[in-house]
Amino acid sequence: MSDVADAPDVESDVVTEAGPGAGGGHSSVEVFSFGEEATRAVAAIPALERMNERAARLLRQRIEPISRRKLRIHAEPISVDEFENWKSEQPEFTSIGLYRFPPLKGGIVISIEPELVVRLVDAYYGGSGIHGERVVKEFAPTEERLLTRLSEALVETLTEVWSEVLPIKAQLTSRETSTAYLGLGGADDRVAVARLYVILGNEKPGRIDVVYPVASLRAVESQLAAKSNDDGGANAGEWKQRLRSALDDVRLQARCVLARPTLSISELLSLKPGDVIPITKPAMVPLLVAGRQIALGTIGEQDGRAALKVEKIEPRRLIP
Is the pLDDT of residue 19 over 90? Predict the structure, then answer.
């Protein structure tokens, strides 16, 4: 009888220790804040930003043959937000691809601004790449074909930059034109957005977003963090490649000299509207950059505009 009466003492001690009025100082109860893991900083972000910068350099090399135009690609810092917030920023009509990205779980989303596709098509067929302010509501067949090539180039680029961390094999699962049909996770799930801006000349940049679920990145956080630490010791060859890629985007003013007529001071001072200065058109004209002749070519016409066809490249000389 006494044994049965003594049994609740153990349970009573546990309740007393966990209760608000407990006087003992040896409680084993630990405080846990639900949701703390979701808001913890993502250690993979620095590595993801370096990978995004490298993707910008590689993607430019793959897109220029598609657009037939020199362009620039700018990598934005990685942003982390709720998936629903990212969806609300997207236009009503856009290009969205959902990909499996093993060994990452949950897949990734690639979003391409539709105006960028239209500009690239215009540039491909010899236009200026200017699209104007018209809102794109559907893709023409030629735009669909270029979009496919652009998406393939982007996936190929992502596979290459991720291969330094993990062997990735991307697989397209669906393609949509609205975020309303997009399933990547819950509305409150956090995502990391790797954003690239593609710039043709002086036109408005076109946006490309690669969206990674934060939960998927946490699974490979240690590998990405290790990659981030390794980037500090880049070898000389890698630095040369980075420097060369950066210099590729530097713009220089080039000019052609059609003629160099000679005038006396008296002729120069007596010039008036309607006077004609005779010149002799040379067979080939020089192409000058920063005062140096780098090529010779013939003057012609292309797409209704004057053009220079390069006939001879001058031997490269080191700058003294």
Answer: no
User: Residue 218 burial by CB count (10 A; 0-12/13-18/19+): exposed, middle or buried?
Assistant: middle
Please state the φ and ψ torsions of residue 96, each to the nearest 5 degrees: -130, 130
- Lowest mean pLDDT: which of 21-35, 148-162, 198-212, 242-256? 21-35
Q: What is the DSSP string of 18-69?
A: HSTT---S--------TTHHHHS--TTHHHHHHHHHHHHHHHHHHHHHHHTS
Q: Which CATH superfamily is domain 45-247 in?
A: CheC-like (3.40.1550.10)
Looking at this protein, which amino acid is placed at residue 201? Answer: G
Over residues 241-256, the mean pLDDT reads 73
Segments making up each domain of the chain, as ranges: 45-247, 254-270+277-313
| DSSP three-state, residue 120 | helix
pLDDT in tens, 114-131: 889 888 888 887 765 555
Please give the structure tokens belonging to residue 184. Answer: 């990547």
DSSP for 189-235?
A: -EEEEEEEEEEETTSPPEEEEEEEEHHHHHHTHHHHHHHHHHGGG--
Q: How confident is the model at residue 169 (pLDDT cuts 50, 70, 90)?
A: confident
Our CA angle for 145, 149, 152, nearest 5°, is: 135
Q: What's the predicted TM-score (pTM) here?
A: 0.59
